[in-house]
Design goal:
two-stranded antiparallel ribbon
Length: 332
């Protein structure tokens, strides 16, 4: 009887996990859209969904690291815009080879992320780490957006398609019918799994977000881990900007607006706690997949774009409420 109760308990826990819930919910919504609008389930549209999940997946996984460590990064949307412009400048104006241009762009983004981590480390403590994280990334959100708009006077930098076919393939190409951005994101997903679950650094990231005081007492190098998380977040956000630039064959200073909310929402839907110390990369991508499927399905069904925000907002409200309700029950 005891063994049966144990099996029942484990089964219940599995069914209640965010990843299981997301798979079930996404399957139902997918079936509804496929039935209501046959175009939704077409091969081209499925590839489109996969391509955008792959494109956004970089920044979402980067945001996940910061939130698990107990912080937040509000600058990722602006980082997407600025990194795209930097890359396009290197390619179209400076004439740098696209591989070197990507590396240089990622280095610039990593430098900005390192500054974020250093700022948070300097002022936390005495302040709770979420406070300096909120302040510095909000400041750079406006600053980077301003730089992007001022630099190009609001105009895009358009790439010559005939000169950068190899680069454009990153955003628009497919291998065995699977979009290249999705394949690259799955590689990052595997790396994140190894980092968080099978490495010492991963245990430290969870420890800092779960109980900062205990992490300090046990000798965790908190500041180094923070800097690593923010550096990776900015770098992966730049990767999203690179993919968007490759797909559109142009860089737009206004792109990326609201992306930080989409990334945070995907994390919360995927089981990442807003107070830190909890979450898995696979769940985060499932959260992003759910949002992408809903947005794509609404577009295919010609639903008013004004209703998109209402529906997504309601979904995120439920996810955030569920997160805090779970925390409240645990404390009791």
């Amino acid at each position: 009887m005891g063994k049966r109760n144990t099996i029942t308990f484990k089964t219940t826990q599995l069914l209640l996990r965010p990843e299981t819930t997301l798979i079930f919910t996404t399957s139902l919504i997918f079936a509804y859209f496929a039935t209501s609008a046959p175009l939704f389930a077409s091969t081209s549209n499925l590839q489109n969904i996969g391509r955008w999940v792959g494109t956004y997946g970089f920044m979402v996984l980067g945001e996940m690291l910061v939130i698990i460590s107990g912080g937040i990064d509000l600058s990722i949307g602006s980082m997407v815009a600025l990194s795209g412009l930097i890359l396009a400048y290197f390619l179209e104006i400076a004439g740098i080879h696209w591989i070197l241009a990507i590396i240089l762009t990622l280095f610039v983004a990593a430098g900005i992320g390192t500054l974020h981590g250093a700022f948070v480390s300097r002022f936390s403590p005495p302040l709770p780490q979420i406070v300096p994280a909120f302040l510095i990334t909000l400041a750079t959100q406006f600053a980077l957006r301003g730089v992007a708009q001022f630099w190009t006077r609001g105009y895009p930098i358009v790439l010559s398609k005939d000169k950068f076919q190899d680069f454009i393939f990153l955003g628009n190409g497919s291998i065995l019918e699977i979009p290249v951005p999705l394949l690259l994101t799955l590689v990052i997903l595997g790396i994140m799994f190894l980092l968080l679950n099978l490495s010492k650094i991963g245990r430290h990231i969870y420890a800092i977000g779960g109980n900062l005081e205990a992490a300090i007492v046990t000798g965790v190098r908190v500041n180094r881990v923070r800097i690593l998380c923010y550096t990776l977040s900015s770098t992966l956000s730049a990767a999203t900007g690179i993919m968007i630039t490759a797909r559109l064959s142009a860089a737009y200073p206004g792109i990326g607006s609201g992306y930080e909310l989409q990334a945070i929402g995907s994390c919360v839907l995927g089981g990442v706690s807003l107070v830190g110390g909890e979450g898995l990369p696979f769940g985060v991508l499932l959260g992003l997949l759910l949002i992408t499927v809903i947005e794509n399905g609404l577009v295919v069904m010609n639903v008013s774009p004004y209703l998109h925000l209402i529906i997504i907002g309601a979904l995120l409200s439920v996810a955030v409420s569920a997160d805090f309700l779970k925390r409240y029950r645990v404390r009791r």
